[in-house]
Amino acid sequence: METRRPDHPGPAGPRLSRRHFLRQACVATAGVGVLTTAMPFVRWGVDGSAARAVAAMPPKRGGTLRVALPLDVANFDPFYLVYDNFFMQRTLYDSLVQYDEHMHPVPQAAESWELAKDGRSIRIRLRKGLLFHSGRAMDASDVVFSIRYVQDKSHGSQFTDLFQLIESVETPDPSTVVLRFSRPYPAVFDALNLTFVLDKDAATDLKAKPAGSGPFKLEQWLPGNQIRFVRNTRYWDSPRPYLDAIVQRTIADPNSLAATLQSGDVTMIWGFPLSLYAPLQRDPRLKVAPGLIGTNYYDLALRVTRPPFDNKLFRQAINFAIDREQFVKTVLYGTVPATDLPFPPGSLAYFPDLDRRYTYDLDKARALVKQAGLNDTSFTAISSTQVIPDGAALLQIVQASLRQIGVTMTIQNVEAARWTQLDHAGNFQMLMHSFGRASYDPATLFGAAIMWRPTANATGYSSPEYTRLITDAASTIAPAQRRALYRKIDELMLEECWCIPVAADPTPFAMAKSVEGLSTDRSGVPVLKNVWLSS
Amino acid sequence: MWRYVLGRVWQVGVVLVLASVAVFLLIRLLPGDPALVYAGPDASNSVIQSVRVQMGLNAPLVTQYLIWAHHALVGDLGRSFANDYPVIQLLEERLPATMELAVAALVLALLVSLPLGILAAVKQASLVDYLVTGVSGLGLAVPTFWFGFVLILLFAIRLHWLPASGYAAVTADPSAFLGHLLLPASTLSLPVTCALTRFVKTAFADILDMDYVRTARAKGLSSPAILVRHELRNALISVVTVVGLDAGRLLGGAVIIESVFAWPGVGRLLLLAILNRDYAVIQGGLLMFVTAFMLINLLTDVSYGLFDPRVRIGGAPTG
């Protein structure tokens, strides 16, 4: 499962997840997008003035939020970042900091910090009086334990790479932690945003028992059926949380998920297929939103060491032959914009003048195919509807366009676990793919995402220039210099086209109109401590 | 009779051992790597290798099988790769839900199909017969998940009489349990009810023409007595065989219904485990299903003895 991904977790693999089932999230990345009419990247399906009027009301205490998701929690390890676990993550745990919608770190378990000018260390003051669910007060040793835990590769965290740069952790006093890095680390807040503080005494079996300090406590887990969270009455961020309890149910079938919301059995669903977006939007009792946009992206990965994709001109031709607008309009129901770049607007690596360099143009595609000498070429594209349910539709759109310019594309649909194997081994010509990490610092995407990292890249792409640019950008502190480096990287990727972004991949929410205050973190993960029920 | 039963039990044991080997090997023949699925494709090779070691998958296959079989013999089916939950506990928690659904569907199917089938057989070539045969034919043709959605739409969304999905434990709240059970059980029972109705009708119609029935009538026995003592008893031998097969089908066929109605049963657990290559859960679950099928077959065979004295005496079952 499904999973199965907002902040979205990017799919990356086949744990069953989200929209149908499989969708793995490999998220690991990025900022806070608050789901209200005023927030960037998010659109509510409600009247703006009504939403503002509600926003002006003071939050009300009490009530139970009844939620249904397509997948049960995978486990209670907050560092195991797959879609299945997102709902539980900021519900049961606190991280050191949490990005706001502008990617500014906001204090959580960390109260303040001081980043060294050379970017090689950070001194963090911890919040005093923060109590774990066990009743014990957090101190520096818990932070050390948590960092060591996520660094341990056998725990299989999807973003262990972010923590491998931490060379040493010092605790000069019980309220202070000093992290030292092996090189300047400008993206350090990506790691701190995802440093969930574990109760070192209680974290004996994180797969089955949580050990956090979050706004809600786990009361009951019936695997495959439901989870009940209750209010942490000693939460540091009083008067939050507002809700008395949250009940999370597992409903795998997307139509049943929608039916259960419409029948009033639950008050919110998350992670349903976009085909249900419009019908739910039409229901006057509900409001819907695509969630934080720009955390995950659909892409076509091209194996550059295999014909015909060893020819750069042919890869560029493919990029011109993708009718992104049609895909966005017919398959994604216009919920997101089309794009050529793997970052949302606002990212350090996003440049509006570079985006949409590849607009749909079959004449240009035909000319490039001819120039490459690859007329009448054929190739196979691998897809898995279990991993990326909408991917098959995108491939069919591309297939129809390519047919018009004499290129034959065969689509092969494979099972999720097989897809993951082919993905990881780079065993494909073209792969229908999707990646997360896009809404965080660009260094986080380039550091580990399989289609973007400079080494062990699944497309087989590598170049000394790309490696140098990625390495320099990841260790340069001055933002202006970093941005200049990322511009060069963007230009290089648009020229080389080994991985072609198509559009953002949203994970939508739908809920009763009484649900107020929902926001997501920079990964698109719901932040439930602000949620309240208006009536 | 006892010799017959003991012989069948011995066969069950042998089949289980063979099945355990087959299950163990077959899931490892499937493409896909549990460690890679768990860590995700972005994971580096060193992370995947660490996870693989943690899962115990780096040992030789024979060693892995022997360790698993040794533990299975003492009731330990291992732990889920995903959440470290003991497999036996996962199955224990999920099995009651699947059994409740299957039993409820079977009872519903019998309650509906037996009287309707008999009625259609007795009133052959009448309007009732055509109606029963026609409706049961239609029921067989309807996809069950579609029928499930129609029921949800009608009884949950429009009328608000029953919950759209979910589960409540019978011990916690019996009325909520029944409310949640009704729609999935009805949906699951639809194909079985329709098939069984047609089968009962055919089986009964055959028996109505038998010499011994005519003789019983000639002896002046009352119609109810003929029905119970001669017709029903003889028809039931073949009906029981079909019900036995259907019971197995209900266990296996519940996967889709469990998904549609969010019923936390074993089918859904296994489906997810297969997709995630959670070997321990797949092995344990499949072994349990094989055992359940074998036991149902055993019970079916033994029940022949109740209906057919020739089996009790030592002959082979004739049904």
CATH class of the largest domain in chain A: Alpha Beta
Largest sheet of chain A: 7 strands, mixed
For the record, what is the CATH homologous superfamily label of the largest domain in chain B? Answer: MetI-like
Sheet-strand content of chain A, in percent, reads: 15-25%
Report the CATH C-level class of the largest domain in chain B.
Answer: Mainly Alpha
**Average predicted confidence as pLDDT of chain A:** 88
Number of strands of chain A: 23
How is the main sheet of chain B built?
Answer: none
> Can you tell me the overall shape of chain B?
globular
Give the fraction of residues assigned to helices of chain A. Answer: 25-40%
The third-level CATH topology of the largest domain in chain A is Dipeptide-binding Protein, domain 3
Query: What general outline of chain A do the C-alpha atoms trace?
Result: globular
Secondary-structure class of chain A: alpha+beta
End-to-end C-alpha gap of chain B: 16 Å
Give the largest interface pair and sizes. Answer: A-B, 62 and 52 residues
How many individual helices of chain A?
Answer: 14
Report the CATH superfamily of the largest domain in chain A: Dipeptide-binding Protein, Domain 3
Q: Just name the CATH architecture of the largest domain in chain B.
A: Orthogonal Bundle
Biggest β-sheet: strands ordered side by side in the sheet of chain A: 9-10-11-2-12-19-13
Q: Note the run of SSEs of chain B as H and E.
A: HHHHHHHHHHHHH
Number of helices of chain B: 13
